[in-house]
């Protein structure tokens, strides 16, 4: 882990590098292009080959989709505790979604025309749930349940299978409760390609949602145009900005919670307090010893972890806005003041007791968030991203005549006679 103070010689150089951009490397870009090309040309056969190559599982084409029998057998295994947790999370997600969805609206403009917008759900969306050593049950909810709340009729899920060709029962249950109408055993870039382009057995979707590794992110980037995408969420990351009021045990726990996601996770800590910096370091070391996934967390800390001692909270917030963290933990005696100055974070957790894990699993907002600096350009997943919007214009002749003079002038300026004439004819009718 990189540990620097504002008076260290390498501090300014390190801070400058924190203003990052989510740009893929050439090898990732080329690999993903090849995978997409194979799926486009060979469809289901390519998915079977990639399942064997990347997931270590041999599937038949007919086994790519989770069958009704597989789903029923899995659901029978789910515990009461899992059902209760899923229900609680889904309830909060739906409540949050209902408040963030856009509603139809209209008003009359200065010329008397009725103008407005209408919002309808996408017909068919794809949600991607990454694989790994632990089933990301919460991700199924934090994508699918938002689609469900928005009224999407066809929710198509894709997730990598285990080595035995099955999907974790708890994950299947969450997908089912989140409204998934089709579930496919496919991961990585080839899963994104199949959702976007379709195959003989998989109809293409209108928009793709969900986080993933760098190959998944790049596949989504390359598929823009074939489909719409939500955002570019990659490996998990957290940045903590705190003054002396921060609780070192709590903050260390948040760092470890994100680090245990995977070796590519990024964890950062910025503080104005030299004592807090030392205390958090000590707590990370102490808590790490008892963490079951400590080796994964150690890799994350070693690869991309950092702790910085800064002169002021103003400087801390400047670093936050440059780095654009997926998760921001903000702890200060004057939280509202600094909260107002945060511009780029995907999700903000304010105060010592606002654990990121509660947002990950239960609170209501989606944990599908922009990473690698893409928070400057993207926001986190919202219910209204599952809605199409269309503008509506309704005019009577009176409103048309009031608009005539300006429209005819615009048409004249741009040399578009037909545009002007289409208004003139109606006005003179």
Features:
429 residues, alpha/beta, Rossmann fold, 3 domains, 5-stranded parallel beta sheet, 17 helices
Question: Helical region count?
Answer: 17
**Would you tell me the overall average pLDDT?**
95
Domain module count: 3
Name the structural class: alpha/beta
CATH topology of the largest domain: Rossmann fold
The level 1 CATH classification of the largest domain is Alpha Beta
Ends distance = 76 Å
Q: How many strand units? A: 14
- Label the overall shape: globular
Kindly state the percentage of residues in helix.
Answer: 40-55%
- What is the CATH superfamily classification of the largest domain? Nitrogenase molybdenum iron protein domain
User: In terms of per-residue confidence, which ranges show pLDDT below 50 for 5 or more consecutive residues?
Assistant: none
CATH architectural designation of the largest domain: 3-Layer(aba) Sandwich
> What's the alpha carbon Rg, rounded to whole Å?
25 Å
Lateral arrangement of strands in the main beta sheet: 1-11-10-9-12-13
- Largest sheet features: 6 strands, parallel
Strand % is 15-25%
């Amino acid at each position: 882990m990189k540990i620097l103070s504002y008076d260290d010689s390498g501090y300014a150089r390190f801070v400058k590098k924190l203003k990052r951009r989510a740009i893929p490397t050439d090898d990732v870009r080329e690999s993903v292009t090849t995978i997409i090309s194979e799926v486009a040309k060979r469809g289901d056969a390519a998915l079977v080959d990639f399942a064997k190559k990347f997931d270590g599982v041999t599937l038949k084409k007919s086994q790519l989709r989770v069958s009704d029998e597989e789903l029923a057998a899995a659901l029978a295994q789910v515990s009461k505790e899992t059902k209760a947790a899923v229900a609680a999370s889904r309830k909060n997600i739906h409540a949050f979604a209902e408040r963030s969805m856009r509603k139809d609206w209209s008003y009359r403009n200065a010329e008397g025309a009725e103008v407005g917008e209408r919002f309808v759900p996408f017909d068919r969306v794809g949600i991607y749930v990454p694989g790994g050593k632990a089933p990301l049950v919460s991700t199924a909810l934090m994508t699918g349940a938002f689609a469900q709340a928005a009224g999407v009729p066809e929710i198509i899920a894709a997730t990598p299978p285990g080595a035995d060709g099955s999907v974790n029962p708890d994950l299947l249950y969450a997908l089912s409760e989140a409204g998934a109408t089709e579930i496919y055993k496919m991961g990585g870039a080839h899963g994104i390609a199949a959702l976007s382009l379709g195959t003989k057995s998989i109809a293409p979707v209108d928009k793709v949602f969900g986080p993933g590794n760098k190959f998944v992110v790049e596949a989504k980037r390359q598929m823009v145009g074939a489909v719409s995408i939500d955002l570019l969420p990659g490996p998990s990351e957290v940045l903590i900005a705190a003054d002396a009021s921060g609780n070192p045990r709590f903050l260390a726990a948040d760092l470890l919670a994100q680090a245990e996601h995977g070796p590519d996770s990024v964890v950062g800590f910025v503080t104005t307090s030299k004592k807090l910096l030392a205390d958090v370091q000590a707590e990370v070391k102490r808590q790490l010893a008892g963490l079951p996934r400590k080796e994964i967390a150690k890799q994350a800390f070693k690869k991309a972890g950092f702790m910085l001692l800064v002169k002021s909270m103003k400087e801390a917030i400047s670093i936050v806005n440059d780095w654009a963290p997926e998760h921001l933990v903000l702890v200060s005696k004057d939280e509202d003041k600094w909260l107002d100055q945060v511009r780029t974070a995907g999700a903000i957790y304010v105060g010592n007791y606002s654990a990121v894990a509660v947002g990950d699993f239960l609170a209501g907002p989606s944990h599908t968030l922009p990473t690698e600096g893409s928070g400057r350009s993207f926001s986190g997943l919202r219910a209204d991203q599952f809605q199409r919007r269309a503008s509506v214009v309704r005019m009577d002749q009176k409103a048309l005549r009031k608009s005539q003079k300006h429209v005819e002038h615009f048409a004249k300026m741009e040399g578009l006679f037909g545009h002007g004439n289409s208004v003139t004819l109606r006005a003179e009718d």
